[in-house]
Fold these 3 entries.
Entry 1:
Amino acid sequence: MNLSKKLLAIIIAFSSLFLISTGFAFSKVFAMASGTVKSKDGKPIEGAKVILLFSEDGAKYELTTDEKGKWRKANLRPGTYTIGFIADGYEPQNINTTLSAIRENEPIDIRLLPVPESPLSAGDSLYGQQKYEEALQEYRKVLSENQNLYEAYERIGLCYYRLGDPDKAIENFQRVLEKAPQSRDVLINLSAIYFEKGQLEEGLRYFNQLDEKSLSDPNLFYNAGVLLFKNNQTELAGQYFKKCLELDANFVNGYYQLGLVNLNKGDLEGAKRNFEKVIELAPESEKAAISKKILENMK
């Protein structure tokens, strides 16, 4: 091979190497996204969450805005993203955009709208201050202006309950169920009021409509169990006390009442186990003192 052919071969080899290198470098180019999050009137929102979701495989990137409402994320794979913007007191917003690795991406500037103030907020404020009569009047005013705002009936029911008028409370809670028959809070309130009134069947009618898996307050099951026990529904009462203890394994009164249920059924071993648990959890309590006396009499 003469010199000119050798030189040409070297040039071709270097050219191939250059093409391979540039192809590899190009595959490693990333995209960059940036922007601002501001309020409707243009004020920066600090601490807003910016969530980028890559459409291709669901990869997620989260960051927050700085004191100027700015955000920036580099080293992103090019492609289509869904970007969400979330800030306290503002309505969330989502956008879809395609980020390029070849050209510079335009800044994404977002304006978030404030969450609309509820017409019930004034009454809620009064209720929170325990001004139940004033809150009641405020809720009635709102309801007179918007008859379809059935949530107002629930607030009115709560006010009547706090003011010592359970019958009026029931009447308003039932109006809520006409529009929202599976309202969890209303079903709980109705069952609790009927239990307090000693109307076991009515209380259970509403209580049994609840999804037990959604309940986290052991007192709901405990109160139902106490009322059932008073009405000689011993077996059912025991079931409710057990459900109470499933939610709170340290619920002292639950063990005490379950011990009484065991005694009533003649289950001495079960009674002993539950009364000993009362003493273990609350040794200085009145229930523990009674439990000790019961255990002594069982010997």
Entry 2:
Amino acid sequence: MVSFDTTTQSAWVQLAVLRMVPQPGSNPPAYVTKTYPVLVQVPVYIATGGTGRLTFPIVAGDPCLVLFNDRDIDTWWTTGNTAAPNTPRAHDLSDGLALVGFRNKANQLANYNTTAAELAYAGGKLKVADKVALDGSALTLKQLLTDITAALTVLDTKTGPSAAAAIAVVNTDISNLML
């Protein structure tokens, strides 16, 4: 991906495959390779449903897969309406859709989690399995909550009335929820 426009959620994409162009008049047929032009304003897939969405900070250089439609998608792209195509064009470079996130073997994700769903960005990570873990680059949410309950326990011994039962419930809840 060359660039991404957050306002239109569209991308400028340079295909990472070369096209084979026949040399005129060559016998037997000979081919030369050429780059495709940069595809402009390619709609990018964003996971949404109803009023919910899951977005990621898409940046230049992110890999994507471009799928090409059979027909002109200009009317749908500009209005969202079902309509006849604007033109008779078919299988055209102008009618692509980008799916961001496909990775080639040279750029596989490190430490792929096979036991929990993960949402990670920079040094932070949210893991969801039968329990939840929220890890920052220096501290986990579980550790923070444990530190808070430890501080409350110390405070409880110095003040009255006793909050020991409430603190015990919070500690149990933390253990039940967090990895």
Entry 3:
Amino acid sequence: MLGGSVLLSLAACGTLQGPAPTTTALEPTAVLATVPVGRGPTLLAMSPDGARVYAASVGKLTIIRTDTNGVAATVKIDPYATGIAVTPDGKRLLLITISSARLTVLDASTGARRGAITLPQNLQPGGYGRIAVSPDGRRALLTNEDASLAAVDLTAGTAAQDLLDLRPSDVRFSSDGHTAYVAGCKEFCTTGTVEVLDPLGGKLLRTLDVGPAPYRLALSDDDETVYTTNLGGPSLSVLDATSGNLEATVPVGIQPTGLAVSPDGNRIFVTSQTSGTLTVVGAADHTVLGTRSS
């Protein structure tokens, strides 16, 4: 397998700032640095202050400083990470791998191991993926493809299992931590589902319909809008979080596996694995501002 690297870039300089572009292609990005991180596949996370990027590759965690674009530390980890997250205070890094039955807790500055939390398992290790951390940093939710969530108390170091009626692919907390959103599939997933839960008791509060086979989930900063990328579209679903109404379905590249909302909430970024494209969508009118091919 070929070695992997992380490109640190200034995305679409002069295009993503200000008015929407009139063309469908984004201007070239300015690559600031290329940082080798080992063999892929690679999961990425960023510290809340933007000072560090964490790249979990096969058997290795690379901590990158964004002020110098240099490697601050490398740490040996179990192969094939499936979930990575940084706590809101920026002090802890949470990591889960495909063969692990424990959530590993690392020091976010050095990568030193600070402990591990045993996760509920039905049959055998594996199955855990996406990690969401509550805004207060006390709790985490981990999706398990076996129709469940692991509800982790990061303070006590314990975990319990919440059973679901869908196969979860992604999870997010609301900005106040009082609500959790879980995207996934029921049955054949011709229509995808987002379930809104009470994260403390796991009680189902409401259900939202999204595009087929939702894979990634994001919320606007004010929690008023829910976004999912849908493998079965391929599309981006845009929903009103209060009414549950579908506001827009935006076509994107094949196999949309990446999703992010800009800090100002004005743009949604979708990366598509098979087509190798980045699609930028305007949040105000749900139109495609531009695309870029890798």
